[in-house]
UniProtKB/TrEMBL annotation:
Name of the protein in question: Probable cytosol aminopeptidase
InterPro entries reported in the protein's UniProt record: Leucine_aapep/pepB (IPR011356), Macro_dom-like (IPR043472), Peptidase_M17_C (IPR000819), Peptidase_M17_leu_NH2_pept (IPR023042), Peptidase_M17_N (IPR008283)
Reactions catalysed according to its record: Release of an N-terminal amino acid, preferentially leucine, but not glutamic or aspartic acids; Release of an N-terminal amino acid, Xaa-|-Yaa-, in which Xaa is preferably Leu, but may be other amino acids including Pro although not Arg or Lys, and Yaa may be Pro. Amino acid amides and methyl esters are also readily hydrolyzed, but rates on arylamides are exceedingly low
Residues annotated for Mn(2+) 1 binding in this entry: 270, 347, 349
Keyword Hydrolase part of the UniProt annotation: yes
Top-level lineage group: Bacteria
Amino acid sequence: MPQTLTIRTAPLPVTPAGIIVIYAGEGMPPRGAAADVWATTGLDFARVAAGAGFKGKQGQVLDIAAPNGLEARRLFVLGAGKIDPDKPATAAAWTDRGGSLAAKLLAANAETAAVLLDGHEAMPAAIAELAAGLRLRQYRFDKYKARKKDDESANSLTVTLHVPDPAAADAAIASRMSVAEGTILARDLINEPANVLGTVEFAERAAALGALGVGIEVLGEAELRALGMEAMLAVAQGSPRPPRLVVMRWTGGKPDVAPIAFVGKGVVFDTGGISIKPALNMEDMKGDMGGAAAVTGLMQALATRKAKVNAVGVIGLVENMPSGTAIRPGDIVRAASGVTIEIVNTDAEGRLVLADALWYTQEKLKPLAMVNLATLTGAIGVALGSEHAGLFSNNDEFAAKLLAAGLATGEKLWRMPMGPAYDKLIESRFADIKNSGGRPAGSITAAQFLARFVGNVPWAHLDIAGVALGSPSSETNAGWTSGFGVTLLDRLVRDNYEDK
Ligand code: BES
Ligand code: MN
Ligand code: ZN
């Protein structure tokens, strides 16, 4: 049974619980109501902290078992890091704090915890980030573990956040948790193996957002053919699983305002096709729909928090398989835009899907701006590791908005260069362009390829191949995939496109 996490708020002061949690800043004793809690133990804070080597740094914990005077199994003093009233912590720092707290509560097998948040910690937005961090760190994908470990942690954890203004905190938490659940939907979709989540099944999961008021349109093979989407169809033709293009519309904004569009690469499994990949780590390619998963998670987030924005999500779902019906290197196809493509490498399939999905989005949905997310190139991981996703854009202002959202949320981006000089690498002898320029500037030529299917609309391409899969564990993620992109793009919407 998966562990359930309940987060609720209550007024001050803290009430008895299995574990009581207070915070202390770097080089400072607990202050305000936290100081009162500490005082009941009768312990000398400076002495205990020095003895335990606790300095109040972010991530540190001072763990007092069976504290005198408190009805609790344990008292945790958590390090809040440097507290500078002139430089308030970023949202991401608060999410990390929540993640670190979850790790400590899970390790202690807590069933109930009471967390005291007052003073500088009590801003509703900060409390909401802490709650999101708790949930994101507690998430596990263990549905296929038939045998559970004996030392299993408690199967439910209830965390009560004691705050000065519970009503204000509740509203902020509800909104932020919608986004965290969007990230978790993205993680679930990415973690799901490809035998379970094929193109049709993914489309069904996306269509389920209809229940939240999201308009859903699912295009099948016949419709894609009628639209001339030979690039996307070419990838799909090697698999018995049919392609799907799903359009998700959320209309929470003014009726006459054009939408912001999000487009995702949804390759449910990427074998490479006839240009087949090596066996080592090929299982990771079940996550080659990470862009589409982020778009779906984002649309769920916007709908559940009833964002005052018009947004569309478009995902191109295919499977890239080698077979007797698969595309061959050298095949030439005509994309829906009319551009002809020589497919020199069947493993450069994501850009073929996006070529048609981007063209469709801009022609049919007339967005005011368009962002696509894709696990597009291994090369982006070589360049940036898992610290930053690659950002490619035709518009400096739009790029700046995305970079800012990245810094605020911790889903960081690094802008990469683009320019006509790179187009030479994807010139084809036989067609307008070829789908791979080989190893040099592999991520950039992929972006140049996508740009051929984008007109003048402000556009950004996020290459998330290095950040979405095989994530090193972080404060907010204990699993294989981070669900990268949902928090980032929700922030982009909140800060720039939402009616106030
Ligand atoms: N899905 C892969 C990119 C990828 C690699 C994602 C590793 C996540 C982790 C993509 O379709 C691909 O195969 N790209 C090729 C492009 C090349 C053939 C031009 C690559 O990166 O090698
Ligand atoms: Mn590929
Ligand atoms: Zn791929």
